[in-house]
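Here is one chain, start to finish.
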Amino acid sequence: MDISRTNEGYTSCGPVVEMSWHRAGVLLLGAQSCLPVPEVPAVGGVGSVLLSMARMGWKLCHVSRPYAVVPAKREQGSKPVVCFNCGDPGHYADKCPKPRRVKVVPAQSNSTAPASKARVNHVAAAEAQDAPDVILGTFLVNSVPATVLFDSGATHSFLSMSFAGNHGMEVEDLRRPLMVSTPSNQALSLQRSPSVRIEIKGVPFLANLILLESKDLDVILGMDWLARHKGVIDCANRKVTLTSNDGRVVTVHALSSESLRSRLNQITWEEIPIVREYSDVFPDDLPGMPPKRDIEFRIDLVPGTTPIHKRPYRMAANELAEVKRQVDDLLQKGYIRPSSSPWGAPIIFVEKKDHTQRMCVDYRALNDVTIKNKYPLPRIDDLFDQLKGATVFSKIDLRSGYHQLRIKEEDIPKTTFTTRYGLFECTVMSFGLTNAPAFFMNLMNKVFMEYLDKFVVVFIDDILIYSRTKEEHEEHLRLALEKLREHQLYAKFSKCEFWLSEVKFLGHVISAGGVAVDPSNVESVTNWKQPKTVSEIRSFLGLAGYYRRFIENFSKIAKPMTRLLQKDVKYKWSE
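Its structure:
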């Protein structure tokens, strides 16, 4: 028998295999016997004892009390780091890229009952794809796109624990534990998610799904569910036929693994409840010039200003070709027009996230002589204060938002930019103009004024709809989309997210539990290179200060760096 440390908080275990951290209530085979241990803080408020043990290489196995620990195997001289969330080595839970796992706690009511038995043949999409007797597809599960497996070899129907946790699905205790045989081992399931709504080709089905650890299958529909809906799997033609409670017959054809992956990333607006009623709000491209609105973009100049003209920057041949392409596209849409203005600003290229080039105008000279618009942008923390109690979220990102606001006719010549192919002036608002955010914020506040701080928050062209319940959210989402339709404002579907229990918004992660820092942005702070100049220090403090509300005594911590911004202070970076 391998003996672990026996002082308080530790336990002795039978022969073990390599294991990883898991939530309480999940049985991992390989620990043949675990003795009860003293109580320690539960998941969600992980105590320093567990955290320290994790970093020293200790791992977790299931016991009758919340936790037991056994020493993990490690190579000579190594310092293993294991994620408390996903169990993978190499990172901590606060930097885990995978969704948070659903909280599963041992139920007192069923902990002593004998376990029933169940079987599932596939827990990963890759292995299921090659099996002849199962069908894979992508469908809406509680309004969220999910990978669904129809498996006549599974005795019960299951829901991925990570999917349930990530989307805040309701769970309840099973009357009796269920010992599930999987291809690799066995697992004990203690909870289920009742009355889960699965929409298949527009037809709703309900399912009671047992929580089970799964790699990339969100839902497994087994014989219990297939029998209830007269499911017939046609192995030769790779399809399944189902009958709904009201007699409607639905046939589903299997997707290839490549199609399945792309399907998950290309769910269409037709498949999202409420959204499908507003197809005109999600066009593939803007339909043309925006309508004339009460608000138009103005450029008010400092008195005595004369026109400023700059020569175009030198560009490589491939850049000139891209300029020609984008200028032709903007001319065709009517967003620019040829100009003979005495004004002129050079153009530059900025790389977008998808590595394509966005043509931008260098308006710095014009901005220097423009009177600044004092319209206030909302404080981020004030926006988040409105979200208390919300559990369902949808995020809408406008398509080329600035191009949906016209420039006042007499100010159009001031926007002229210079290119190898001549002078052009903008008819719609352009990136880089100093007052553009203020004018667009003014427009959006007027559009959503009656809903602000009730169920809508807006920051420039980002719109967040929040609700306490799904029933409320259905009404709120419809009202918000109706406003966009009324004012002829258009959204980019690929950048929108709907019916979420957790959403990223303005560099934060928002859920029913509150507001947290986006882990990807934390990584940007931790990976920041050592600043070497005053401007680099100022940039770093600006980034870190964005999250000061989450850092206790931020001012004291940052004080040594803040001092370096003062004049005549010797710059010295110590270890």
